[in-house]
């Protein structure tokens, strides 16, 4: 394969952070290569004090590897009764399983650089007008306290068959473009 992937044009995703896809469906499309949908790799930066919205990935497994800086990750996984925080330092990784609520927080005074390693590949599809057609993350306008009051139940996670079908339709559209 005699191609170079060019890492350009970070995208501000709905959780509020900026992500630069390194290897994944969008980069494959830009490089005119077959769509890679088994895994993806992306680079992200969080400025001092920056935090994402609480969000959840229904389908993907997400590793967040801290390249530089320190990251605080708020999580509530299916095995836990309540949410918790993990501090992730440089050269450490945190694993987020499908269905885990999580939030990224840079509580430090310096930039935090991260790599996101995801399987299957993270899909974030937008049309020519910039409208989101599919997003592998469900971004919530709820606080941890509000989620707790709802007993960690959100309507967006109630129909996994539809989520999986919508995701597959997105992959197929990307392969055809």
Give a verbal description of the structure:
The chain is an alpha+beta fold and 177 residues long. The protein is 16% helix and 36% strand. The protein has a 6-stranded antiparallel beta sheet with strand order 1-2-3-10-5-8. A hairpin with a 7-residue loop joins strand 6 (70-76) and strand 7. The longest helix has 17 residues, at 160-176. The chain is globular and about 45 Å long. The relative contact order is 0.21.
Helix-strand blueprint:
Layout: E1 11-12, E2 18-23, H1 25-30, E3 40-46, E4 55-56, E5 61-68, E6 70-76, E7 84-89, E8 93-96, E9 101-105, E10 112-119, E11 124-126, E12 132-135, E13 138-139, H2 144-149, H3 160-176
Antiparallel strand pairs: 1-2, 2-3, 3-10, 4-9, 4-13, 5-8, 5-10, 6-7, 6-9, 11-12
Q: What share of the residues lie within helices?
A: 10-25%
Shape by Cα distribution: globular
Major β-sheet profile: 6 strands, antiparallel
Our estimate of the beta-strand percent is: 35-45%
Following the backbone from N to C, one meets helices and strands in this order, namely EEHEEEEEEEEEEEHH
Uncertain runs: none
The spatial strand order of the largest sheet comes to 1-2-3-10-5-8
Helix tally?
3
Structural class: alpha+beta
In whole angstroms, how far apart are the ends? 21 Å
Computed Rg: 16 Å
Strand tally: 13
Q: What would the average pLDDT be, to the nearest integer? A: 90
């Amino acid at each position: 394969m005699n191609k170079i992937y060019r890492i350009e044009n970070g995208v501000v995703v709905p959780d509020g952070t900026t992500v630069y896809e390194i290897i994944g469906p969008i980069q494959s499309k830009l490089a005119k290569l077959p769509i890679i949908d088994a895994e993806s790799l992306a680079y992200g930066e969080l400025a001092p004090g920056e935090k994402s919205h609480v969000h959840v990935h229904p389908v993907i497994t997400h590793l967040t590897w801290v390249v530089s800086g320190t990251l605080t990750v708020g999580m509530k996984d299916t095995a836990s009764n309540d949410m918790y925080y993990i501090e992730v330092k440089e050269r450490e990784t945190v694993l987020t399983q499908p269905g885990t609520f999580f939030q990224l927080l840079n509580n430090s005074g310096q930039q935090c650089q991260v790599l996101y390693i995801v399987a299957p590949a993270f899909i974030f599809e937008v049309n020519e007008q910039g409208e989101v057609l599919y997003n592998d993350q469900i971004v919530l306008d709820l606080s941890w306290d509000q989620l707790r009051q709802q007993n960690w139940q959100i309507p967006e996670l109630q129909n996994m068959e539809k989520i999986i079908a919508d995701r597959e339709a997105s992959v197929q559209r990307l392969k055809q473009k």
